[in-house]
Amino acid sequence: MRPSLLFLQKVLLFQLPQAILWCCSSIVIIAIIIFQHVSAGNLPNNETVPAVIVFGDSIVDSGNNNYISTIVKCDFSPYGRDFGIGNNPTGRFSNGLIPSDIIAAKFGVKKLLPPYLDPNLKLEDLLTGISFASGGAGYDPLTSKLMSVISLTEQLNMFKEYINKIKEGVGENRTSMIVSKSIYIVCIGSDDIANTYVQTPFRKIQYDIPSYTDFMASEASIFLQELYELGARRIGVFGVPVIGCVPSQRTIGGGILRACSDSSNQAAILFNSKLSNQMDALQMNFPDARFVYLDSYNPFLDMLQNPTKYGFGEVEKGCCGTGNIEVSILCNRYSLNTCSNDSDYIFWDSYHPTEKAYFVLSSLILDNKIMDFF
User: Fold this and answer.
1) What is the distance between the alpha carbons of residues 88 and 226, in angstroms, rounded to a whole number?
2) Is 349 among the residues known to form the active site?
């Protein structure tokens, strides 16, 4: 008898590696990166960026899942422990800021990127950018369906609605400028491999790893073409990181020693190669756009292998609870042994990085890629 969708969601929550990591260039940095952004003066040819618009999963979901019916939520303590004045859970899967916020600041737009579904948004909020991301989403439509979250197709539909809203507010000419000049970030794909493929039987019946990563890359290409057709021209896409090395995956698939899951990591490498090739092809076909591939695998691996170089001590478990399995509703105010020194940890829970790790990773990966968007 097939298990219910709710049962599947509860099982998958223990296995769900939706959050994964951002990585870097080859720069060695000091341990703590001060929160600062790339000012417009540092952009090429005095370029300005009117807005930052984000699609993806829990790495860049600033609270959309608060407003939908899903168990993939984090709008409760201890999430948000260091956000703002402290103890302010906003639906961001971390103790504080997340990459969507940090990237918006780096491009000189604003310090916080709000979720599109926030009912309190005003027109001025929309004009400078928004996150459509939903924790638990993937390139594979089944990934979002299994967790009852907002699929990429639905995120794109919300973007269409967004365009109409700002057009009503500021007119067609300014809307066209905002859409064409904005920075677009896509961060998604980890859950497809580590959740949908590895932990459920549904896709294994149809695909082996090479053909499934072909399917993922094809879905990514279709999405990016649709985004281009809607007017986007400055598009950055994160590859899948070292998903086999997040704490939950060490616990689930790493044996008694909690080693990294090599099969998940090899699938990520294979997908990233195909994604990069697809983006090269898109760049050839649409030379008026910029498709920027952002490697989040190799640098993060270096971060895990050489944590002290980046100012971290703990890399195998998260701060919340035991750090081995807690995430989303499993990481809560009743979680025992939650750490007090989260700045020493790369991971906040068993999937998602700490705010400090997000700052380090976002700077490492983006600071030498800014020029590629123009």
Assistant:
1) 36
2) yes
**Catalytic option among 94, 131, 191, 352:** 352
Q: Name the pTM for this structure.
A: 0.89
Nearest Cα neighbor of 139 from 239, 14, 24, 277 is 239
pLDDT digits (tens, 9 = 90+) for 185-219: 999 999 999 899 988 999 999 999 999 999 999 99
**Four-residue CA torsion sign, 242, 350, 103, 163:** positive
175-181 LR contacts (CB < 8 Å, sep 24+): 176/231, 177/50, 178/50, 178/51, 178/127, 179/230, 179/231, 179/232, 180/231, 180/232, 180/233, 181/48, 181/49, 181/50, 181/233, 181/234
At residue 176 the predicted structure's pLDDT band, cuts being 50, 70 and 90, is very high
Catalytic one of 58, 131, 190, 362: 58
Task: Give the 3-state secondary structure of residue 102.
Answer: helix
- Residue 214 catalytic? no
Nearest C-alpha neighbor of 40 from the set 107, 101, 104: 107
| Strand pairing report for 234-238 and 52-56 | unpaired
Instruction: State the Cα–Cα distance between residues 137 and 147, nearest whole angstrom.
Output: 8
> Is the pLDDT confidence value at 254 over 90?
no
Q: What percent of the chain has pLDDT over 70?
A: 89
Can 37 be counted among the known catalytic residues? no
Catalytic residue among 349, 350, 362, 363: 349
